[in-house]
Design a protein that fits this description.
The complex is a heterodimer of chains A (about 375) and B (about 150). Chain A has about 375 residues and is mostly helical. Chain A is built from 13 helices and two strands, in the order H-H-H-H-H-H-H-H-H-H-E-H-H-E-H. The C terminus of chain A is likely disordered. Chain B is mainly β and about 150 residues long. In chain B, about 15% of the residues lie in helices and about 40% in strands. Chain B is built from two helices and eleven strands, in the order αβββαββββββββ. Chain B has a five-stranded antiparallel beta sheet, with no helix packed on it. The radius of gyration of chain B is 20 Å and the shape is elongated. Chain B starts with a helix and ends in a 5-residue tail after the last strand. The chains are: A mainly alpha (about 375), B mainly beta (about 150). The interface between A and B is medium-sized, with 14 and 17 residues.
Chain lengths: ~375, ~150
């Protein structure tokens, strides 16, 4: 108790000595530095200290420059800064308020809509913050100082972590249903493929029916692609530092196996066909590129191991296809043009030589005859 | 004509009085960066009142500094820096292009004393203010003529 009292007295003495050692100019400079640290409370305290000094000894401020001009100006800035910080704090709180998500059935569209809501919320928050700073009449250096303040950084955190965390939680809630959808689509694909193979081998089945089955297969491929794309987007939004809930959920639901099955079934289908039209060929190439990009995302996020080998097989299967109605290559066009031009020149040359030769011989002959 | 003389004189003095206004030339202490060409700009950014060449002062101090402290008192600039041995008084000449300068040793007892933790501020009344120079170990007052006092009384 006694030692505590002594320490308190010592601390008070140290504080008194340190204040006495400072002069008005130094206190004023410290108040400005406090504003540069976005600490208006400290600035207020130092201004009060400076005023007390001048009151004690008016000779410290001969023309009243500090008490009439400089200190009130610092006070005004501190007041504006304090108000701005309060508004930024309110905004940071708004950023952490939970978003009211609409209850949508698990689908690719739902994922898109949730991501759009989160994006809008983030943009609104950042725009409000920028507006607050832009509207203030604080000198630029103090305005810049606010960017280092706690509420300003809390808003950054709310955008980069808080809103994203809410979004990923929403995603986790629908991953299971989406994975089930992908499984279902893969089953439908396998059934259609079997039906198509059977139809091709049955002479009684008409070409129209085969085309219909092919169209259905293309439709299912599109659905599958959409779902894979959705997973890729969800994983890209899963930016948590340590715990990545979407990644973990998709790992648990074994997305890797489903992706492998997807690639294998695609390879199997491509090997079963020999030729495609130009449009289908282009679509297959685009589809391959998309699968390649999903593979990269799955590998980078750790959801699946690299499937480059299967992808190479897939590409090889596409390359082996005979493309009907293929657009002639530009080289062929130039070769044909060259041939046409050469033939044209030859004909012209031939015609020209036919016209000049008889006339020449005729003159000679005439001359010859004349001589004779 | 003689009767008119006082009137003319009064009019003359009134006219003279009308051309004069109060202009207090002083400033708070400023920390100013020294440019590569040894100049300092008195003021900040695009709001400044002049450019001062410090070459002769830096040569006399045999010092190379990146920052000086400056304060204006009754139109005279007082300049010093960490590592200087003197306070320099710079008084602008009327041509707007040059200034006369001289130095004041505020620690005359110690010839080798190098200034540390310099703080400049004005002290006194509006009509009779000096520059209070605070160093690491002492405090002195320099009036507008360059006289040094250990204590200041109005």
């Amino acid at each position: 108790m006694k030692s505590g009292l002594i320490s308190c007295i010592l601390l008070l003495l140290v504080c008194a000595v340190s204040t006495a050692a400072q002069d008005l100019q130094e206190i004023y400079d410290s108040a400005k530095e406090a504003l540069l640290d976005a600490d208006p409370k400290k600035a207020f305290r130092l201004v009060a200290e400076a005023k007390a000094l001048v009151e004690d000894d008016p000779r410290l401020d001969p023309n009243g420059m500090f008490s009439r001009r400089l200190l009130p100006q610092i006070e005004r800035y501190a007041e504006t800064m304090q108000q701005l910080l309060t508004k930024l704090e309110e905004l940071a709180v708004q950023g952490n308020v939970s978003i009211e998500w609409p209850d949508l059935p698990a689908s690719a569209e739902a994922v898109q809509q949730y991501a759009a809501i989160a994006k809008e919320k983030s943009e609104q928050l950042l725009a409000s913050r920028s507006r607050l700073l832009a509207e203030t009449d604080l000198p630029s250096e103090y305005r810049e100082a606010l960017r280092q303040s706690l509420p300003y950084r809390q808003i950054d955190r709310a955008v980069s972590t808080g809103i994203v965390e809410q979004l990923t939680r929403r995603f986790v809630g629908i991953t299971s249903a989406l994975v089930d959808s992908l499984k279902g689509v893969n089953r439908r694909y396998a059934n259609l493929y079997k039906a198509l193979e059977k139809a091709k081998k049955t002479p009684a089945v008409s070409q129209t029916e085969i085309s219909k089955l092919n169209e259905q297969l293309v439709q299912v491929t599109r659905e599958r692609d959409k779902l894979l794309q959705t997973f890729a987007k969800m994983l890209q939004a899963d930016v948590g530092e340590d715990v990545k809930p979407v990644t973990r959920a998709l790992e648990r639901q074994n997305l890797e196996t489903i992706f492998t099955n997807t690639l294998n079934s695609e390879i199997k289908y491509l090997r079963s066909i020999k030729e495609v039209d130009r449009q289908t060929y282009q679509n297959l190439l685009k589809g391959y590129e998309r699968l390649e990009s999903y593979n990269k995302i799955f590998v980078n996020t750790g959801v699946a191991k690299d499937k480059s080998e299967q992808l190479r097989e897939l590409k090889a299967s596409i390359d082996q296809l005979k493309v009907t109605g293929r657009r002639p290559s530009p080289m062929l066009f130039f070769i044909l043009l060259g041939i046409v031009l050469t033939v044209g020149f030859l004909i012209l040359f031939r015609l020209a030589s036919k016209k000049t030769t008889p006339a020449g011989t005729g003159t000679h002959n005439a001359a010859g005859h004349a001589k004779h | 004509m003689k009767r008119l003389l006082p009137v003319i004189a009064a009019a003359f003095f009134l006219a003279c009085a009308a051309t004069v206004t109060r202009f207090e030339q002083y400033s708070p202490a400023m920390k100013l960066p020294v440019e590569a060409d040894s100049t300092i700009v008195i003021g900040r950014d695009d709001q400044f009142t002049g450019v001062l060449w410090l070459n002769p002062i830096l040569a006399a101090e045999k010092a190379s500094v990146t920052e000086v402290k400056l304060i204006e008192n009754y139109g005279v600039y007082f300049v010093s820096a960490e590592g200087f041995r003197r306070i320099w008084m710079i008084e602008p000449k009327g041509d707007g292009m040059s200034a006369v300068y001289r130095s004041v040793d505020v620690t005359p007892k110690d010839e080798t004393d190098v200034y540390e933790r310099i703080s400049l501020s004005r002290y006194g009344t509006s009509d009779n203010a000096c520059v209070r120079v605070r160093l690491a170990r002492q405090e002195v007052f320099v009036d507008k003529k360059g006289r040094v006092y250990e204590k200041w009384s109005d």
